[in-house]
Design goal:
The protein is built from 23 helices and 16 strands. It is mainly alpha-helical and about 675 residues long. Strand 13 and strand 14 form a beta hairpin. The chain is globular, with a radius of gyration of 25 Å.
Length: about 675
């Protein structure tokens, strides 16, 4: 047990995963290396090379499905107002013992699913490996003698451990905290569940040691790329933890001195609370200072266009817009592009093997929230799938045919990952594939526009003025308004006056915060980011309900002020005379209100060719995320605002009955 902490009487034996030490230099060869027999004993940490293998092993453990290849990168980013788990409403579907049920906040079955225990065990296995490395490096004579490389490896271990703990908190709430390696007799392997605020304060302190001790290089220094945690990510991660610490969270018990939510969505047994204002300001200031350092470093910036960035990501190349990406290996790991992205619905001679990218879809509300001139709209929302011109035989004999899939409100593929942008190396593999393989596209943990949004949020919160550039005697890199404008101007390339008019027209602290919430949606959709920000803002429930209402009404007002009917006014052009390839720039709505032909394509023609819109649209909306929000016209959830998952029964059983769930699980 850890002295001085209020630890519940629970126990959990931290599982240590076997070493499979791995080296990597880039996405393509990340998982190619084998274990070294010399990796045993204390001498490991006297040798920089052998220590590097231990560090690289951690990155390898981040690439499993139960960590960041699938679960954190795709599955548990659902559901929000804009990102949703696949599957339409049928009796029992949303309450299924599967990712569909969990995505709709029916968490009880997660405790009995084999994936649950695997996730818990693998995350704590990573933490145990980080503990071993931290202990080994700190006690090595080489580190104490001033080895720069070992100092960097120590910084990586601290930062990766903090990253994993933050994600455990996001998933489960209060979790066991263990910060030292397990002894051979396991006498220290049983630790209690720690209040998440205590744990986050510890993670902030650990990262402060990394930052103050200059333990990590910036990208481009000492051979570090965005595939290694680096100084910018340590600063950004600490900032994210600080904002989470200042934000709202459902609690196992009421905390004295904390504010309780008054929106009607706080459970009397498990209240949704946040710290008092003075304490929140402390964490906002920490976050602001960190994001400011990233901006002033000049090491990261946005690519020239939104499309440029996603082209680079699909090609598995480096961009300084990324701050840290978890590295995957082509033909070895990575669900991104396969489980999320443009759908390859049939095998074609153009692209080869199919994928399964309905795992996370986007909502129609998101599509209509984009302005017509926002270049992010059709890069993010892909209203089509790629099929074979040979028909339904699903052979490779047919060439590519882009098909409109209907304006289903919960079935829009995310176009950020698109086979048309992927590398020739990927294409060669996919053309010969007969089954699933790792696409090798990295999971982006943090990129520069998100830093700008969090910077703007913190500065606006502290000063109450979107145009302020100083706070408590410190002058910052830019105003909150300028940070937001930078993102908008890129999004509205060619229409910067429209972007400027929008941003400059936002008045007051509260309206500016709402604009940040909106921009978070438009910029980061599909990236498994928004859910965690909505939770700390206590907006998850209300934003989902806004989307459900719009879905039932089947209409929405666009940013241009046009009211559109979702399933009646969508049109586009083809690029070729054979009408196989859709022109992404040609999608439109609203102008053809009487359904007249728009450049040769009418909605009636689309509907006749590609099928009707979702016939069960209203039920989909009524039941969407019903484990969190209840069913329209029906019974509400047993526990309000319960977005957390239960701890697995296997973990509970392994603790001899001392570990137990809360929140009514």
């Amino acid at each position: 047990m850890m002295g001085g902490q209020n630890i519940m009487k629970t126990k959990y034996l931290i599982a240590a995963l076997a070493f499979g030490a791995i080296t990597f230099t880039s996405c393509s060869d990340f998982l190619d290396q084998k274990s070294e027999s010399e990796l045993s004993g204390e001498n490991v940490y006297e040798n920089e090379y052998f220590t590097s293998l231990r560090i690289n092993n951690i990155y390898g453990l981040l690439t499993t499905d139960r960590t960041y290849s699938q679960d954190m990168s795709v599955t548990f980013g659902c559901n929000t107002d804009i990102e949703c788990i696949d599957g339409t409403y049928k009796a029992g579907t949303y309450n299924a013992a599967s990712y569909r049920g969990w995505g709709n906040y029916y968490g009880s079955s997660f405790a009995t699913d084999t994936k649950s225990n695997a996730m818990w065990t693998e995350f704590y296995g990573i933490i145990e490996q980080c503990n071993l490395i931290i202990d080994g490096i700190q006690n090595s004579k080489a580190y104490q003698g001033g080895s720069k490389a070992l100092k960097h490896y120590l910084g990586e271990a601290y930062t990766l451990r903090a990253m994993v703990y933050l994600d455990l908190i996001r998933l489960f709430g209060d979790v066991p905290m263990k910060l030292e390696k397990s002894l051979d007799d396991l006498s220290n392997a049983y630790v209690g569940k720690t209040d998440r605020d205590v744990l986050m304060d510890q993670l902030i302190a650990d990262l402060q040691k990394v930052i103050d001790g200059n333990m990590l290089p910036w990208v481009g220094e000492s051979g570090y790329t965005v595939e290694h945690v680096n100084m910018a990510y340590a600063l950004g991660l600490q900032g994210q933890i600080a904002l989470t610490r200042a934000g709202w969270a459902i609690r196992e018990a009421s905390k004295s001195g904390y504010e309780t939510a008054t929106d009607g969505n706080s459970d009397p047994r498990y209240p949704t609370q946040r710290p008092a204002q003075a304490e929140r300001n402390k964490y906002y200031k920490l976050a602001l200072d960190n994001f400011n350092k990233i901006i002033l470093s000049g090491k990261h910036s946005m690519e020239g266009s939104f499309h440029d960035y996603w082209s680079i990501i699909n090609l598995r190349q480096y961009s300084n817009e990324s701050i840290f990406e978890i590295p995957m290996g082509l033909n070895k790991s990575g669900e991104i592009g396969y489980s999320i992205g443009i759908r390859l619905n049939q095998q074609t001679s153009t692209f080869g093997y199919t994928n399964s990218t309905g795992h996370m879809n986007l909502t129609a509300k998101l599509f209509y929230d984009y302005g017509k001139n926002d270049t992010r709209r059709m890069q993010t929302c892909g209203f089509y799938q790629i099929r074979s011109t040979a028909g339904a035989n699903q052979t490779k004999s047919g060439t590519r045919k882009d098909n409109f899939i209907g304006n289903a409100p919960f079935g829009i593929p995310c176009g950020k990952w698109d086979p048309r942008m992927m590398s020739d190396e990927w294409l060669a593999i996919n053309k010969n594939a007969e089954g699933k393989f790792g696409y090798g596209i990295n999971f982006i943990k943090l990129r520069y526009p998100h830093v700008l949004l969090m910077y703007a949020e913190a500065l606006n919160e502290l000063t109450g003025d979107p145009d302020a550039v100083s706070y408590n005697g410190t002058t910052y890199a830019m105003s909150a308004r300028k940070a937001l404008l930078d993102i908008r101007e890129r999004a509205y390339a060619g229409n910067t006056a429209e972007a400027q008019a929008y941003v400059n027209g936002i008045t007051g602290k509260d309206n500016f915060f709402k604009a940040i919430v909106d921009e978070n949606e438009l910029e980061l959709a599909g990236e498994s980011v928004r859910k965690w920000d909505l939770i700390r803002w206590n907006l998850l429930h209300s934003k989902i309900m806004e989307m459900r209402t719009a879905s039932i009404n089947r209409q929405q007002t666009t940013p241009e002020g046009t009211t559109v009917i979702w399933d009646a006014k969508v049109a586009y052009n083809y690029l070729d005379a054979a009408k196989n390839i859709i022109d992404d720039s040609s999608w439109t709505w609203g102008e053809n209100a009487d359904n007249k032909s728009w450049n040769g394509t009418t909605y009636a023609e689309l509907k006749a060719t590609f099928g009707t819109v979702d016939a069960d649209q209203t039920n989909n909306a009524k039941y969407y995320s019903s484990g969190l929000c209840g069913i329209d016209g029906g019974k509400g959830p047993a526990v309000k605002n319960l977005y957390l998952l239960p701890i697995s029964n296997s973990a509970i059983n392994a603790s001899a009955g001392y570990l137990k769930n809360s929140y009514g699980y």
